[in-house]
Amino acid sequence: MHPKVDAWFVLVLPLLLTIVTENSGDIPVDEDKQERLLSVVPCIRRLCEKYFRSERAMKGSLAIINIKPDASTFQLHILRSFNEDARHELGVMVKDASRPHWNASHVTEKAKNYLMLIADSSALAAPIRQLRRLPTWNPLAQVVVLFTAELTPLVFEIEVRNVLQELFDNSVLNVNVMVQRYNTSVLEVWTWFPYESGGCADNIDRLRLVDECEYVLQEADAERNLRASWVFRERHHFADFGPKIPKYYNYCPLKVSTSIWEPFVVGNASHIEKGLEVLMLDAIAARMRLVPVFSVIETALTTGRITADNQTGLYADVLQRRTDLMIGGLHENPISRKLLSATIPYYQDDLTWCVPTARHAPKWLNVFIIFNVWTWLIAIGIIFAAAGLMYRFNYVERLVKENYTWMVLQSLAFSLSVYAHYWPRRLSIRLFLIGYMFYGLHWNAAYHSFLISVLTRPRYEPQIATVQQAIETGFGFAGAENMLGHFDKPDASSRHIARSYRVCSNLDECLGRLRNERAVAIAISRAHSSNSRAIGEAELYCFPKAENIYTYSVSMLAKKDFHLLPKINELIRRISESGLLGKWQKESEKIRVDQDEEGGEGSTDGGEGREGGQTILRLDHIEGAFLLGAAGLLLALIAFIAEVLYYRAKRRYRWRDNLFDRFIL
Fold this sequence. Notes:
The chain is an alpha/beta fold. Among the domains are: about 30-240, 3-Layer(aba) Sandwich (Rossmann fold); about 350-355 and about 460-555, Periplasmic binding protein-like II (D-Maltodextrin-Binding Protein, domain 2), CATH 3.40.190.10; about 365-455; about 625-655. The termini are far apart. The model is unreliable at about 1-15, about 20-30, about 55-70 and about 600-605 (pLDDT under 50).
């Protein structure tokens, strides 16, 4: 024998075989029964070698053996039989479900095989609970359950079904149950095939006898020159049952719970159209020969606080095994990691803030914003200064009697490169006017060249693009209730957001309100915000990635230890590598584009007044010019009224002429 079984030791083996014993007390047995029990030990080891997955040792692997002081002779014989294997292909880790297990976080290798020794089916729950808490837990491992007591024909089938059902409820399907035939030394192996005869792994229908083994003494045969020896008598029932978890699944239903969450799932409560995840599931189901069956989750559940409630919580359908998978742009969280299993991630999304796009800047300023304030002040100053010079030139030459206002108009005409009524005689004045005309040509060309682009391109007010800007501007904040946990932080911004946070039971409705509510930011998925039907993409602005609340990987959530999960993960990996995800995402986005075009929502503010690719100027594009003209007319009217009143007062009170008369008469 190798190292003693009553000590702790390490076997240099890569494969873990976990033997779980249940302390059921000392059960008195007679010598015949004890002898029959011990006689099946060689068959137990022989059949375990057949069912268990084993590989020859290439690297060190930790295996711990802890034998209870009161372990039965039968259990000790089983352990010795594995320990004395000269090939050492199976490492042994012994557990005692009646005692709490010490920290096993250092063991990272998943168990490939389990051997559970129980007296009856009621003793199975405790070792399963213990094993599920270990980091080595693997529901896809090969499981052998051995009854350590003989079962009468009356209770045999009931006990076997109970064992299979208990393991099935824990998502373990690769199960073989060893039972000693009553009052014999024959060991029988019973099992079930979840997908046999078109089955869908939903209930244990038929029990199948797959192996029989007896270890007997073969008497000596002098004629054949054979000495007495112990031999195995075996019968294998090779019915065409196929593997327990086959490659194809009889077009069984794959039940899926989902929320309507574009671009992952597109549709409504009564009909699922397409979507990134829907197309992915269709491809996976077709490959596995499954039929996806969708049920829509209530919107209030998807936005409410996430709990472990298996009756009314978000995960209730999966926890109660009414559905197999959940989709809808989901990601893992601390609660889902404890209750559910997840596929490998296939999409990266952001939780971010979205606000209304900045409004158009007032159009009446279009004719003024071509140049900045200083440029306008310099240009206006040049006009008045040139008018003053021309007024002085006209006074020196004594050509015509004109006031300063008239000269301002002449100076403005020169600066705009239009005809002006002024004919000076002196060469120096003419040269000045030629230079002034060149200035006017340049100014006029620059003004009109910029004017076209300003009039035809929409201008916007400053866009709110950070959380700090939103807080300073007095924005309110809103989002789903399950997002509040992200703002439970000590910084000032998070505290402010938490105080002003408004819970939205329907995020799409909140997005739609951004059309009318200008001072609110919605916390929402970036992918969904750009694909939601509730609001046009041009009406929404989402903060840049540097302002993300949270970045996460999207995956499907499944029943805990779902037996189809490894195959689904394999297909998701192939789909991701093939580039189909990008294609399906574009198809999902195209659904919204087509619907927007049909509904007439495809136009944006940037395309206002466009016909045949040309921009047609409307009154609001040049309303600034009309406003300026109206202001000029109003000033002229006021000046006219003032002149009339001044003229009448002068005649009535016989005022003398003064310097002011030169400018108004």
